[in-house]
């Protein structure tokens, strides 16, 4: 909220609207009971925060992970409101999830969990009301199970030709997130009279977003050199080409598989060498993994090694302390509120949206955020620009609705 101080200085009435936005419209928490493969009844917590519908129907990610709790869901919901607002589309903000780790479960367990989760969630979501989307730990398989259960217990599963939950087949929407991240990186470098061509890029993570990010980087002529997961990281000194990326895709297509298996298929790859992934010299970093993946020490290490910038491909992948370091060391920083809008853009454009359409929208949004940052004397600070731009659009709509 400190980014909004220039807005409050110019017009104090916005401070009261900001206070109103601190409280979500609705917060739902419920029990998710399911049976594991040994016949034991397991219980997890499910969440959905419908944060703000001032701009339109709720929409936002579902996130599964052991780290998920009420505080994280509320924080992500708050960010999502601004993230959706900066796209310029009439979309509200919502986020949900559960404190279950999907990576150590069998496919049958995930199916049973998703069905139990949706059996309660369906009361609060649906076409034209709240549209859950893919997020951390929720990919194509999970969406398919969630949609299947929703369809089984509901008569209506779409609206105006737009299927709820992608009709159970996210398809291009999964790649749109990674593509959007790279398109924003392209815009940021173009603004500096530079390109992605030949840039050595650390990709942190190995999920579908990380892999689609790497794929789009290769198309732009950049060189992704790492992938990582909870077991460590693999480092290809000469970079991953499409063939090597295909090997990573094949390995990670198996639930619970670890990226370290890649070294069996490569004679040049290194596993957990050097000790820290941040010690590897690079030009750009794309953190697509856990929250707070890059802390202040990691940011300083990257800067010392000549890194140009960090573009988030995951939610809150850069800690607040690291954000200050990036700003102090004059490094580029693409915040997730801006870079993770790819899926939202494609949802708004409809099923016929192409990557060219996505790139055009990314260019428009980047210019809007850049101009907002300049207007409020935070030139070059995309984090402040995105926050202010999103807040103003939501606050102006909220004000017109009265005390609701």
What does this structure look like?
This protein is an alpha/beta fold and 404 residues long. Helix content is 43%, strand content 17%. It has 14 helices and 15 strands. It has helices spanning 5-10, 13-21, 70-85, 107-121, 140-153, 172-190, 208-219, 242-252, 296-304, 320-328, 336-339, 342-349, 355-375, 382-400, and strands spanning 26-35, 41-52, 58-64, 93-98, 130-133, 158-159, 162-163, 200-204, 223-224, 226-229, 232-235, 270-271, 284-287, 309-311, 332-334. The strands form four sheets. A five-stranded mixed β-sheet has the order 1-2-4-3-5, with helices on both faces. It has a five-stranded parallel β-sheet with strand order 9-8-13-14-15, sandwiched between helices. Strand 8, helix 7 and strand 9 (223-224) form a beta-alpha-beta unit. Helix 13 (355-375) crosses helix 14. The longest helix has 21 residues, at 355-375. It is globular, with a radius of gyration of 21 Å. The model has no long low-confidence stretch (mean pLDDT 93).
Give a count of the beta strands, DSSP E runs of length 2 or more: 15
Element pattern in H and E = HHEEEHEHEHEEHEHEEEHEEHEHEHHHH
What is the share of helical residues?
Answer: 40-55%
Strand order of the largest sheet: 1-2-4-3-5
Report the principal-axis shape.
globular
Q: Mind telling me the C-alpha Rg? A: 21 Å
What distance lies between the first and last C-alpha atoms, to the nearest angstrom? Answer: 21 Å
**Strand coverage percent:** 15-25%
Helix and strand composition category: alpha/beta
Mean pLDDT: 93
Largest sheet: 5 strands, mixed
Low-confidence stretches: none
Report the total helices: 14
């Amino acid at each position: 909220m400190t980014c909004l101080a220039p807005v409050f200085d110019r017009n104090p009435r916005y401070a009261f609207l900001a206070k109103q936005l601190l409280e979500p419209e609705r917060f739902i928490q419920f029990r998710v009971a399911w049976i594991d493969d040994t016949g034991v009844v397991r219980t997890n917590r499910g969440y959905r925060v419908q944060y703000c519908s001032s701009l339109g129907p709720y929409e936002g990610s579902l996130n599964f992970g052991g780290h998920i709790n009420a505080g994280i869901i509320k924080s992500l919901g708050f960010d999502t409101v601004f993230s959706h607002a900066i796209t310029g589309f009439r979309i509200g903000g919502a986020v949900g999830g559960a404190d279950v780790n999907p990576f150590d479960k069998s496919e049958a367990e995930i199916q049973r969990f998703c069905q139990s989760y949706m059996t309660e969630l369906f009361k609060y979501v649906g076409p034209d009301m709240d549209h859950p989307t893919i997020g951390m730990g929720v990919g194509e398989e999970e969406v398919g199970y969630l949609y299947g259960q929703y369809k089984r217990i509901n008569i209506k599963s779409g609206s105006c030709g737009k299927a709820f939950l992608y009709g159970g087949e996210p398809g291009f929407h999964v790649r749109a997130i990674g593509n959007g991240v790279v398109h924003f990186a392209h815009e940021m470098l173009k603004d500096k009279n530079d390109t992605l061509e030949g840039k050595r890029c650390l990709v942190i993570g190995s999920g579908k977003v990380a892999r689609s990010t790497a794929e789009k980087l290769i198309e732009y002529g950049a060189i992704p050199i790492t992938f990582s997961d909870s077991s460590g990281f693999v480092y290809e000194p000469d970079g991953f080409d499409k063939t090597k990326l295909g090997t990573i895709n094949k390995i990670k297509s198996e639930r619970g598989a670890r990226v370290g298996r890649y070294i069996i298929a490569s004679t040049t790859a290194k596993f957990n060498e050097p000790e820290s992934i941040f010690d590897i010299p690079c030009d750009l970093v794309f953190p697509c993994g856990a929250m707070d993946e890059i802390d202040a020490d990691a940011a300083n290490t990257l800067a010392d090694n000549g890194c140009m910038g960090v573009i988030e491909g995951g939610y809150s992948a850069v800690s607040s302390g690291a954000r200050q370091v990036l700003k102090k060391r004059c490094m580029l920083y693409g915040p997730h509120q801006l870079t993770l809008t790819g899926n939202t853009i494609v949802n708004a454009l409809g099923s016929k949206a192409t990557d060219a359409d996505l790139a055009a929208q990314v260019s428009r949004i980047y210019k809007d955020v850049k101009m907002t940052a300049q207007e409020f004397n935070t030139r070059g600070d995309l984090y402040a620009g995105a926050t202010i731009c999103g807040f103003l659009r939501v606050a102006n709509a909220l004000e017109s609705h009265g005390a609701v």
